[in-house]
Write a structure and sequence with these properties.
Dihydrofolate Reductase, subunit A; globular
């Protein structure tokens, strides 16, 4: 199974602007890239905070060919939103979750955030690639890409201009 962390961030490394949740700061070009890129994934994983922030958008875009999983300490609290095979909530560890996804025959999973989820999957060596859009913005504070100190070595696979000042960088995580 291939796991790809996908995120947009400011030039100074934040995936949210100050205390405002979500990635509303991302350019139209990044949003178009993101929608197109997700077509190649059969599942997406996010944390409870990311889900709460984008709940209405996520629920309006559910597709039978893509499972959306939300990792939360309290999956029962989201039982009203659960749609088996489309939108599921779990408290499994990343390793347990990946094993289950493999058993279900899924092959390409997008890790969509936030910082806690990014860190959880990166710390246990499950991330294969990181696709990072760098927006030409400086926030000075906000949610960083990672929630905790970690060490990972990356190899640049490609760089692409999405807009005159917006870059998409794709990296492979060295294992």
């Amino acid at each position: 199974m291939r796991l790809t962390l996908i995120a947009a961030q400011s030039l100074d490394g934040f995936i949210t602007r100050h205390d405002t949740p979500g990635s509303d700061f991302a350019s139209a070009e990044d949003r178009a890239f993101f929608r197109a890129a997700l077509r190649d994934f059969d599942c997406c994983v996010m944390g409870g905070e990311t889900y709460r922030t984008a709940r209405d958008t996520i629920r309006s875009m559910l597709m039978p060919e893509r499972l959306r999983l939300v990792i939360t300490r309290t999956p029962a609290a989201f039982s009203y939103d659960s749609l088996p095979g489309k939108l599921e909530f779990t408290d499994k560890t990343p390793s347990q979750l990946v094993a289950e996804l493999r058993e279900r025959g899924l092959r390409n999973c997008a890790i969509l955030g936030g910082a806690q989820i990014h860190s959880l999957f990166l710390e246990v060596g499950l991330i294969d690639e990181i696709w990072l859009t760098i927006e030409p913005l400086l926030f000075g504070e906000g949610t960083p890409l990672l929630a905790r100190r970690t060490s990972a070595q990356l190899t640049l696979l490609s760089s692409e201009k999405l807009a005159p000042s917006t870059l998409l960088l794709k990296y492979r995580v060295k294992k």
